[in-house]
Design brief:
Layout lengths: L16 H17 L14 E2 L12 E5 L5 E3 L2 E2 L1 H17 L9 E5 L5 H14 L4 E3 L2 E2 L3
Parallel strand pairs: 1-7, 2-5, 5-6
Antiparallel strand pairs: 2-3, 3-4
Length: 143
């Protein structure tokens, strides 16, 4: 009687496809849930304040940056063109929503070394553009 040779043992290899699917699903989840903010157009060191009250985030928030020399930055625009870009962004927001009921919010990121006269001049220009309220961003004073 002839006994057949036993078949070589089959190696059991794990299927990696489910693990790859889970990794990609986690990657997609973290990319979607992450809050991505655009980079600041200018490097600004905000002035210090005694208390740092929390500022609620709002949809359609506009951010204007001013460095120590008075150079303006809004999104990709620099210098005097930043005010024009800000005016266009405000007009676009007012076209979408009623600006009399909910005026656009402007956050001003001004450097602590900025001259007060330059800041006052800028606030006058922003008021003429229709910004009734401008939030000056500060940082909490360190003891």
């Amino acid at each position: 009687m002839r006994i057949p040779d036993p078949a070589p043992p089959r190696t059991r290899s794990g299927n990696l496809l489910p693990m790859i699917n889970v990794v990609f699903l986690l990657l997609i989840f973290f990319l979607i849930s992450a809050e991505m903010t655009p980079p600041q157009p200018l490097e600004v060191a905000p002035p210090e304040t005694a208390t740092d009250a929390p500022r609620p985030e709002a949809a359609g928030l506009l951010r204007l940056f001013v460095d120590a020399e008075g150079q303006l930055g809004f999104q990709a625009a620099r210098g005097p063109a930043a005010l024009d870009a800000l005016a266009r962004a405000r007009a676009a927001q007012c076209a979408e929503t009623d600006c009399t009921e909910a005026p656009p919010q402007l956050r001003l990121h001004a450097d602590a070394a900025l001259a007060a006269a330059t800041l006052a001049d800028l606030l006058g220009k922003l008021g003429a553009m229709g910004f009734a309220k401008v939030d000056l961003i500060t940082r909490e004073a360190r003891p």
